[in-house]
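Ticket #4471: structure output looks truncated?

Reporter: J.K.
Steps to reproduce: submitted the chain below (648 residues) through the standard prediction queue, then opened the result file.
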Amino acid sequence: MKLKIVFLIATSLSLFAVHGQQKKGVVVPNENLIAENIAEIPKELATEVKKYSESRSASLAEIHPTKNDIIINTRFGSTSQLHRVTQPMGARTQITFFDEPVSGATYEPVKGEYLIYSKDIGGNEFGQLFKLDLKTLQSTLLTNGGRSQNGGVTWRKDGKGFYYSSTRRNGGDRDIYYMDPNNPKSDKLILQVKGGGWGIHDISSDYKKLLVGEYISANESHIWLLDIESGKLTEITDRKSKGIIQSEANFSDRNNEIWFVTDKDNEFERLATLNLDTKKVSYHTSNIPWNVENYDLSEDEKSIVFITNEAGLNKMYLMNANDKSYKEVKNLSIGLIGGASFTKDNQNVFFTQSTAQSAADVYKLTLKTGNIERWTESELGEMQKSDMSTPKFIEWKSFDNLKISGFYYPAATKFTGKRPVLISIHGGPEGQSLASFLGSNNYYTNEMGVALIAPNVRGSSGFGKTFLTKDNGFLREDSVKDIGALLDWIAQQPELDKDRVMIMGGSYGGYMTLATAFHYADKIKCSVDIVGISNFNTFLKNTEEYRRDLRRVEYGDERDPKMAAFFEKMAPLNNIDKIKKPLFIIQGTNDPRVPVTEATQMRDKLKAQGNTVWYLEAKDEGHGFKKKSNIDFQRLAVIRFMQEYLIK
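Returned output as attached by the reporter:
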């Protein structure tokens, strides 16, 4: 249950709604968008931006158990849906057709005659499980359809049923259930737990045991063994141990051994095995001084493919599960890799990859020959490689001499003079800015001449567990000082304009944006806050129950009077008088993580003080916009905001 977030500026969000008469030649928001004080958007701008806004991507969702078929997630209409691909570069045949995005597809594991997938409503993240008949394309709701999260489907290999996690008992605790999807009434509670961070890792080959994970925070998790028949839950890792990640567990081909990922006895997360009898841990990737992000064990349990995160770029390795020897997969483009999975015959690995100049697509690695074959090629609209900015790795020192890094996307060389800067801060806070494809944000660099910097402030993942915890609790504002140091670095760069800097971020990055707006008001020109936290006290009070304790570990417990007082002192909401520059607030009405009240209370206080504040809210979205019409409008509104307050 590791959290991994790549918050790339505003590519997954959206724009506004206007009241009053519709004007000719002006872009009008759809009926789900609420907009206040947003400048008119000429249709000519929408035409210009369209070159950059029509790209799509594809990611691997599932591999068929008996055929050489895959299921991918991609978008041809408004939202990402499931598509079937049966051959390299073959047709992407759509199999779900909903207004809401679909995720989490998994085949019935014997014949692959149907899929189980997840879908929520309006971005509320109360995902429900559905069964999709692949002959009729009809879907059947399997779970209760209420305000509960359901997911983590883990099949019995004989296809008789699956285990899954759900918060439906009380909305806060994530219990374990079992269901035969051909008989939804068979649904039954298997394990009742306390906390929202529980999930299923693996099922034993005899179907008698489950490996269960307990996520405490970004820097602590534990592994348990559940005897299904008796319901007995036994510690595998030491529950009393603190500040150690122990996750991604799988049974090995040895009865008394499991595979897992851990940062125990190390700064970074290593692939390891644990002897269930002796509790001895053996580490197998110690020579790689970076995190192992994820791995997949082949069906015959003889091979492993694992992905590392090496300074914001991914590498893929293949390991012999018997002797633990491994080697890097060569001939891969430099970029990001995800979702690597073996085919059931153990002969191939499908994976998703993107580069700085290409969106994500699906590829197949043939293990015997080492040949890499492209299976999808997503359209980039009218964008050409010459339109795209390539990231450069940069570093600077913060107030306490700690080295901070990020990625710098220069403005196109056709622009002369000092260039304005957009600082885009990721969420999490344990997210990480990677060397990503900018997509539609290439409009900023190539058409507006705006340089873009994506920093990894303290508290970001990927740089070791010490760095990860440097913003916890009362250290929260140290990460804001890292942005202050970045502003000083910008001032030293001959090609960048220190007097034209905009801050933008989403979720925790939204908090960082608001905090920077009052701490460094004299060093920025404007800010864009997307689903950001304006006061940690009100945030923790109103966020969904299943998240509350998990967030308290990271941010601090508002029930502690000292922490509550600290939250009040540092809250952007309580420092409105120090915010002097224009601010744009963007929010989804149905956000279960950062409730809409975090946005409205900030907006209302800014307006009362007479600040310039633009506001955009989508009634059919949650924690970031996912519907294309909303995304397109948000993009245009952000560009207009930049034209008004950054470029001038």
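Triage note (M.O.): checked the attachment and the full token line is present. The two ends are 45 Å apart (CA to CA).
Status: closed, working as intended.
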